[in-house]
Here is the input.
Amino acid sequence: MKRTATNDRSAGGYRWRHWLVVGVLGVAGASLVARAVYLQVIDQAFLEKQGDARILRKAKLSANRGMILDRNGEALAVSTPVDTVWADPRKLAEAPQDFPKLAKALDRDPQWLARRVTSSLDREFIYLVRHMRPQDAARVKALGIPGVDTLREYRRYYPAGEVTGHLLGFTNVDDVGQEGLELAYDQWLGGVPGEKIVMRDSLGRTIEDIERLSAPRPGQDLRTSIDLRVQYLAYRELKAAVQDNKARAGTIVVLDIATGEVLAMVNQPTFNPNDREQYAASRYRNRTTNDFLEPGSSMKPFIVAAAMETGRYHADTLIDTSPGMFRVGIKTVKDHNNLGTIDVTTVLAKSSNVGAAKIALSLKPQEMWSTLDALGFGRVTGSGFPGESTGILSGYEHWRPITQATMSYGYGLSVTPLQLAQAYAILGAGGVRRPISLRRVDTPPAGERVLPEPVATELVRILESVISNGTARRAAVMGYRVSGKTGTAWKASQTGGYSTNKYLAIFGGVVPSSNPRLAAVVIIDEPSAGAYYGGDVAAPVFASVMSGALRLLAIPPDDLQRMPATTLVQAQDPW
Here is the structure.
């Protein structure tokens, strides 16, 4: 009996535990069923949200950057569609067997790909190759490798290459302006990216576009003042001059006198903005706006302008330059020859340092400074080009006689090539200064009068003698009257003082003299083939560029009587 009672108690305990487990499992099952019913019938949005979170992603819609155009609508910079290959490193790392074929399709080393992936396992997104041709990227995508996909982007392309390199600058790999006009007008040119929701599969590949959240807004086109025809012409002639004269560098800028527009801006050596390997500051720096130099004798016309403004000097005013030298303090100012007593016209035609210095010393420092300041020296031109220099024009309060004397022939102050070109344009505009514009100007600005019109007009006439019987005979343009001035300046030495074997050859001028339409400045840095005077090295470049530009722009000749008869007959009867 005792054994039977013990067995009954064991059986009762077993049944109790059995029903407890059954009850717990029943409650758990009922809870799961209730939860499933709740989620699938009552709160369906939760499951949908969780599912979407695993397969739906936001993706960027790249915006097309605006084009840069020349004044006639020719494309200078355009954005072309390209594809970027990207990857989710964690998913790609699960398929190491695909590394060799992926690396081959990307034209990369397999070891590079392995390092790129394994070093980024804590990230969900890495670039593999930026800016592939769409057809090449499509072949990569067709491999179907887990975690690898493509993204549409845009790459900047410059049709004229190095011809417009310094002017346009370039963008970075994200199509954001870094230099030149690309930087100056980045907000204008740059678009606003859009956004969309896409569905991606378990391998991270986009399988469907679900919804566009915002449309991309393309950038605005920029129409520049540049005439690509004149730009090509200036590029060709400057490059040839730098090579022929074995020069270190060269610069030319051409302005429309009536509007202040830059028609051409070229530097040598240049760079090709389509080749990112050439992106070095020493190559892409725009010497026209960012470098400054001592202008030598090309400064003399503006000292004469200051003198003529006082009313005490005119074209025929006499200056005694005998015996071809004179002392100012401890310095002796010299001419190449003793020109004797000469008029102001001859001072400029023969580029007399003594004559220019004596004129300058007859002026009060404030008179001379005021004219130079009004002509734009020591201030930016208004071009808006990034990094534009102001040059150096010190305050007149601390000038000494030697300061005025050396300034008269272009030492002791510094100018940019663009400033110098603007000053010549002011003379051509009858004494009116207009801001320099790198954008096309449809309505010419009124400008600001900074020189009396009679002074500017007489000075342009005087400067014709520099070409007709002075130091710049090689600046002559057939059929046109030319006014201008040469300059040959010693370069400052890094050890102090001036180098006696390194020169800047300079020419600045306007054409046609009877009604000036174009102004230009040419600078050849360190010519070393023998010739180094501005009249021998820089003036011929001016003549070649202006000869072509005048015809391209259909500016009528104003000196037909000096053209050969055969040329006139050919012009009248092309048949």
